[in-house]
Design brief:
CATH topology of the largest domain: Neurolysin, domain 3
Distance between the termini: 67 Å
Structural class: mainly alpha
Shape: globular
CATH architecture of the largest domain: Orthogonal Bundle
Helix content: 55-70%
Radius of gyration: 25 Å
Number of strands: 7
Length: 680
């Protein structure tokens, strides 16, 4: 059988990935061939006898490596969503090979000499905004990745890059194994008191899938962990589950991540110093809207100043409820979800179990699609002829208001052993306009929602509804891309700008006009009652102080690991406690850490960037304020957002794009008002 990954184009609808034809054995030969072709393309740029200019250097370099890009995109996406031990072993071989190839390009003195010549020869006067951005981004990328280093320093940087790529993979593998290793088996019904019937049924199905009857299985996957912590009346089992979750990759076993956390942080610091930066955070933030660590701390401090007093009052209220119910005093971390859920129900007469019947997954998907159609005129049609990497995946063709093809959309919603926790958007190939063609992207969202049971469809919690809309917002950013250069297209933007479209989409989940599109009872088809919609709105800021303090704490922890001035000598636990002590609302627990499971910053791309979520909330609160003023489905406002934000990718500096859309720079006021942390 031939290797499908070696083809320049696939004989599939919309040039989609032929997942069912790709085997594990195909990746290594495809990567090697991709590297070989990439090197030849680079050699052609260097050997070009004509003077270096924008077209024959920056544009040509932009288009290098297509085969390798496709093969690596497929491989590493599946390594997150449908992995295996064999795939993880292969990742450990491929990652250093790809890092070495990247190093060779970025530190190629001959290539960089030509890039400098092209940079000097290409007058900005003759370039449009997107061309200027490609020129700047490419030149800076080489400088920031060691092109100006000499001799031994270059070799040191190559070693650092290779070691970091391996450590990041190992961190993620350890965390997945640690999460999958824990199972809490319950064989007595009286230990299930408080748990919803649908949840108990799902736990029984999970147990049955492992060959056990008349028992229930609880795991650390979110659809299992979160409901148990919210509803179980068994405090000892809540404690057991919480400690298992909080100690993932922190236990003294082969999945421990303490040394990986310390080593990743240390090597990032050394790399930044080698490149002339005071810290990893300084290196990263140079290419972010925040620009410098000081601005990040300023944002986090401002939010903490308003949120901490509110959070402390919220904690007091939950403790008072616990006291009234003869519960623990003080409440511990494993009590918080349980008693806060009771308080929410008492204050607003609303909880996930009341709301879930109105949020059938298929209808929520339809609601997201209808919202996009009302805003941007796009439509979604389910495809049956697209190859998929797992049976759970659903595929759609996306078309614009004129019926033109925009994207293929993959949706993967349920947890499984080979999929990492959480939710994310990704793409298998991007958008570009090379050779007069508008090549459209292959966009995907991956989530971990509650699976259907024998008696119920997949019913989402309200938090899962907002998660779906969030990831769908990212997907829209990818689908609506309308740039020329793929590296500047879609979600290829500054990391503290990329969360704007996603977090903005969550706002529609709180609006009756949107909920009426899809929130119907799965049994009666009754539209969600107006009183429940009002309760959703009323409860939107429940624990907003606590949640803000928690996000500030995570942002500070991230910055502490990545704005180091020297390598810490204390333990991971001690370092973490010192970093987040001002945001701690519970006594420290020596059995748990966040760092050892903080995949966003040690496995994903959020190092020195976790603050981005709060930064983007400032942007989205300011943005939705305009939608509220003009109408949440106002075509003019939606078109303005589409033309200046969604379709533009990273073609200009994000603040310039934002000002074109909004007419001004954002401030934190809209967010503080929206979350109830200040009164107007």
């Amino acid at each position: 059988m031939s290797n499908p990954l070696l083809l320049s184009a696939f004989s599939t609808p919309f040039n989609t990935i032929p997942f069912e034809e790709i085997k594990l054995k195909h990746y290594m030969p495809a990567m090697k061939k991709g590297i070989e072709l990439g090197k030849a393309e680079i050699a052609a740029i260097k050997d070009n006898p004509l003077p270096a200019n924008f077209e024959n250097t920056f544009e040509t370099l932009e288009r290098c490596g297509k085969l390798l890009d496709t093969a690596s995109s497929v491989f590493f996406n599946l390594n997150s969503s449908e992995t295996s031990e064999e795939m993880q072993q292969l990742a450990q071989e491929l990652s250093p090979m790809l890092t070495a190839y990247s190093n060779d390009i970025l530190m190629d003195e001959e290539l960089f000499t030509r890039i400098k010549q092209a940079y000097e020869n290409s007058s900005e006067d003759n370039l449009n905004a997107e061309q200027k951005m490609l020129r700047e981004k490419t030149f800076k990328s080489f400088v920031r990745n060691g092109a100006n280093l000499q001799g031994k320093d270059k070799e040191t940087l190559k070693t650092l890059n290779t070691d970091l790529s391996k450590l990041s993979l190992t961190f993620g593998e350890n965390l997945l194994k640690a999460s999958n290793a824990f199972e809490m088996w319950i064989d007595k019904e009286d230990e299930l008191v408080g748990l919803p019937d649908g949840f108990k049924e799902a736990c029984a199905i999970a147990a049955k899938a492992k060959g056990k009857e008349n028992t229930w299985l609880i795991t650390l996957e979110y659809p299992s962990f979160i409901p148990f912590m919210k509803y179980s009346e068994n405090r000892e089992l809540r404690k057991k589950l919480y400690l298992a979750f909080g100690s993932r990759s922190f236990q003294k076993d082969e999945n421990n991540n303490e040394s990986n956390v310390r080593e990743i942080s240390k090597l990032r610091h050394q790399k930044a110093n080698l490149l002339g930066y005071a810290s990893h955070a300084s290196l990263i933030l140079e290419e972010r809207m925040a620009e410098k660590p000081g601005k990040v701390y300023q944002l986090l401090d401002e939010l903490l100043e308003h949120a901490l007093p509110v959070a402390k009052k919220e904690m007091e209220e939950i403790q008072e409820l616990s006291n009234r119910l003869n519960g623990p005093s003080p409440i511990e971390r494993w009590d918080f979800s349980y008693y806060s859920e009771k308080l929410k129900n008492e204050k607003f007469a609303i909880n996930d179990e009341i709301l879930k019947p109105y949020f059938q997954l298929e209808k929520v998907i339809d609601g997201a699609f209808l919202t996009a159609e009302k805003l941007y005129g796009i439509t979604f049609e389910k495809l049956e002829n697209i190859q998929k990497y797992h049976d759970d995946v659903i595929t759609y063709a996306v078309k614009d208001k004129k019926g033109k093809h925009l994207s293929v959309f993959y949706a993967d919603f349920f947890p499984r052993a080979g999929k990492r926790d959480g939710a994310w958007m990704t793409s298998f190939s991007g958008q570009n306009k090379y050779d007069g063609l508008d090549t459209r992207p292959l966009v995907s969202i991956v989530c971990n929602f509650t699976k259907p049971t024998d008696t119920k469809p997949s019913l989402l919690t309200f938090g899962e509804v907002t998660t779906l809309f969030h990831e769908f917002g990212h997907a829209l950013h990818g689908m609506m891309a309308n740039g020329h250069y793929e590296s500047l297209s879609g979600t290829s933007v500054y990391w503290d700008f990329v969360e704007l479209p996603s977090q903005l989409m969550e706002n529609w989940c709180y609006e009756k006009e949107c909920l009426d599109l899809f929130a119907r009872h799965y049994e009666t088809d009754e539209i969600i009652p107006i009183d429940l919609v009002q309760k959703i709105k009323d409860s939107a800021n429940f624990l907003s102080g606590y949640q803000t303090v928690r996000q500030v704490g995570l942002g500070r922890l991230d910055m502490s690991w990545h704005n180091l001035t020297s390598i810490p000598t204390n333990s991971v636990y001690e370092f973490e406690e010192n970093a987040i002590k001002e945001t701690e609302l519970f006594p420290p627990s020596k059995e748990t850490t966040t760092s050892c499971a903080f995949s966003h910053i040690f496995q994903g791309g959020y190092s020195a960037g976790y603050y981005s979520y709060k930064w983007a909330e400032v942007l989205e609160a300011d943005t939705f304020e305009l939608f509220k003023e003009t109408g949440i489905y106002n075509k003019e406002t939606a078109t303005n957002f589409l033309e200046n934000i969604l379709s533009r990718g990273g073609s200009e500096h994000p603040m310039e794009l934002y000002k074109k859309f909004r007419g001004k720079e954002p401030s934190t006021k809209a967010l503080l008002v929206k979350t109830g942390l200040i009164e107007v």
